[in-house]
Structure of Indolepyruvate ferredoxin oxidoreductase:
Amino acid sequence: MAERSFKAEIERLKLGEGETFHGEGILAVTKALLESGVAYVGGYQGSPISHLMDVFSDASELMAGLGVHFESSASEATAAAMLAASVNYPLRGAVAWKSVVGTNVASDALSNVASGGVTGGALIILGEDYGEGSSIMQERTHAFAMKSQMWLLDPRPSLPVIVDMVQKGFELSEASNTPVMLELRVRACHVTGSFTARDNRRPPLTVAEAADAPVRDTDRIVLPPANFLHEVEKIEKRWPAGIDFIRRNALNEHFGTEDDDIGIIVQGGIFNSLNRGLELLDLSDAYGNASLPIYVLNVTYPLIPDEVRDFCAGKRAVLVVEEGQPEFIEHELNTLIRRAGLDTTVCGKDVLPRAGEYTADAIREGVSKFLRQHAPGRAPAAQSAPPPALSPASVPQRPAGFCTGCPERPIFSAMKLVQKEIGELHVSADIGCHLFSILPPFHIGNTTMGYGLGTAGASAFKPEGKRAVAIMGDGGFWHNGLTSGIGNAVFNQDDNLTIIVDNGYSAATGGQDILSSRAKPPHRKTNNPIERAVRGVGIAWARTRTRTYDVAGMRDTIREALTSPEKGPKVLIAQSECQLNRQRRLKPQIARALKSGQRVVRERFGVDPDTCTGDHSCIRLSGCPSLSIRTNPDPLRQDPVAHVENSCVGCGVCGEVSHAAILCPSFYKARIISNPSRGDRIRHRMRQWVIGFLQRHDERKLAARAF
Ligand SMILES: O=C(O)C(=O)Cc1c[nH]c2ccccc12
């Protein structure tokens, strides 16, 4: 079950010729694919492209009706390899994933498809999650475009441009027999706007029809001698054809004034930020009517030598606004300007930050510096004062952490308890929500090497004494952990423990179903147990614990795995449902039950303030966001007591941790009964009577001793 449902929005994907489509960037992309006669679509979810995959998934029936094949690929490598369908057949195909990580994973297939070239248009839609909102290493997909010679579109975040780039992207791919990448930053994915729709088009050839009439062309297969010819073809045919198409179709744009002796060259994807920066300097308005010329690169690779020459001719200096490092575009512009015999100065990273996100403010600062150097008359009068520095104490910290009720929390609580007994462990962490164990209060995890690579990251550790621990999510396990981690550990006779967090979904990417998910979606085969898979590749010591919230049980199994005399790789599958997905699943059911007057029981935990000692070790071992502190009601004690807030979902970990760690008995479980039955009411009255009797008894005893 995905984080967001697009069932309502996808109705708009049926709009026809001339109607106005209004919505988010990712929906516009999907609509543009359908209008382009795409024959097949695939991909792997990851921020900020997760929602695009969810849109595809929700629209899969509509696509099937048009004869378009869609599937959620097992990984980005799978998705990229799917583009093989466009090598021999005039089939348009689109795949999507998160870059740069997904492109890393896909790069084997991408190199192959880029070498052999394509007949049908191949479009790779990339969510480029760069900047301060990103959760991954800061790298540029641009490097992949250059090394494999694939074209890179970086459209201005405006719906008509994005839609046009999808459609032209296919044509460009076909005209130059080259795969085309379409990069969408997170804001472009979710920018809202309008464009004029066209009719959806059935693919002229479907994948089923192509399969019926196989075509084989050994010149397109990456195998000597054809691979040597591909290199020549890339340079002599595909590159010139690409440049020609981009120029003839004016994929790059011009904004602002025409003639000037300075100008700006910008990646399309950050045009809006540039324009905002210029607006703040009174050099543009909200519509991009700038008072200096701007050349917008909706195609950042390849650059078009004639366009660069024409833009730079007669200009003393140009500023290149290029996010991320190294400055590939700036380097190439210098070469092209030199080759054109011009002496235009190219500014870029000398006035803009070398790395980091190009926010409107960073760009405003860079443009100001550029103007001071090359057009002092148009520079802002004074250097703007830096914003007042905030002391770290005045900025509330909000480290990422496990959600309330997350089933992964008790796994790490149990590990902390084991570490107390046998000492610190080396822990090879993985991509997924479980990576939050690195942060307080757990401080568990020494490295992370990539998706599903937790076990591989521990493979150099061949312990003689203490075993190392690897963490892997169920998402990572099916993405590639089964072979690169578990299979490798079997083959190389590891003696480490892998804990596979089986929460039922690819939770970190937004709750998509995977092979071991418990849901039974109509067109997929789920419920494939992870334990069966690891035993299948030779794991002898495998345990599945079905309730991670049982902290004592988790602790005992982890201890057993780390201390048992048995040698060989060990796998502990720790199961409990992702709480976010569970809430999404249950909330509508509960709401319906409450409305229809059915009896509903919800559980919450609480802390008895009279018993709580106020030492807060429960918080240190759990870190649940619903576990907080409040003033001690006892006037003789000063330490604040622990307190469970109303966001509690009743997972019970706080209490379990406290008991497993023998901390204190102050946690209690309350059952909130809505629409109680007669039996509930009678039981409630009897309890009240007993409690009242005991309380009155206590009060009388206290009153007797009072003075
Ligand atoms: O959803 C995200 O933000 C992720 O980083 C998950 C992810 C999806 N595909 C990947 C490939 C390599 C590393 C992480 C991911």
Q: What stands out?
A: The pocket of 3-(1H-indol-3-yl)-2-oxopropanoic acid is lined by residues 44, 46-47, 98, 101-102, 105, 135-136, 431, 450-451, 508-509 (CB under 6 Å). The first strand starts at residue 20 and ends at 24. DSSP finds 23 helices and 24 strands in the chain.
